[in-house]
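S2.1 Query sequence (V-type proton ATPase subunit a)
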Amino acid sequence: MGVLRSEFMSHGTLVLPHEWARDYVDLLGHKTQIMFEDMNSSVMQRPYRRYIQRIEEMERMVRFLSKEVENMPNVEVSKNRIDDFLDHDDEFTLDSLEAEVKRVYERFCRFHSNNEEMTDELEAAVEELNVVKDSISTGFLAAGEGLSQPLLEGEPTGQGSRRREDHMQFSNIAGVVKMEDQESFARTVFRATRGNTFTQFVEIPDTRKSVFVIYFQSTTAASAMSAKVHRICSAVGVHIYQWPSCNDEVCRGSLISRLSLLIASCSCWFLQVHP
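Output structure tokens follow.
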């Protein structure tokens, strides 16, 4: 119905010359309280439809910008300044106003995109850092590094023992899962692999997430069991991270330093954008 939907109204029809229609409509809009209706809304031939679509698109962008500005702290939005707009309406043109609205709208969209990317990058860095810390606490290496060593210290390394070791090598896949999903995730992995896996969870402090490590028997990191576990993780939608393969303190310290620096940089950016 429009802005005058709560007022007493009368319906009328005004026939105007085509060449003067704009001037009459502009004058009526300034001097009277009138709401215009499109009498050709159900007709296929609408010569002004293209302009109406442009105005509707501008209204959508303005609504988005208004909502974003209202959510900003310590910002007061002035509305319903109709008389002020009418006093300066000759200063605006549709093309220039449309270009300005699009420019501001695209800037806000880029800001939202950058904000989402930084948020995802920060969350990924925090999750990967906890995976690395968990690998240090467990002391278990990724496949291909140190897994051919005996499981117990002092185990014989004769020919028979070597064959037994080849069948007792383990691989693992690590990542992060939501705490409310970890039980169902563990059951899914256990059933899909017919009990040939063991899943361990370590809670990440101050979050509702946990680091998971899935251990399974495998001689290589690219085995059929590894591919199956990866497919399960992809289907469930958990985040998978590379389990560190180096046992060197310098290597792991460098990895932790890199992730900590990334987290600090992202946190500093958020403090500047959202003080």
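Strands lie at 170-178, 197-203, 209-217, 239-241. Confidence is low (pLDDT under 50) at residues 143-166.
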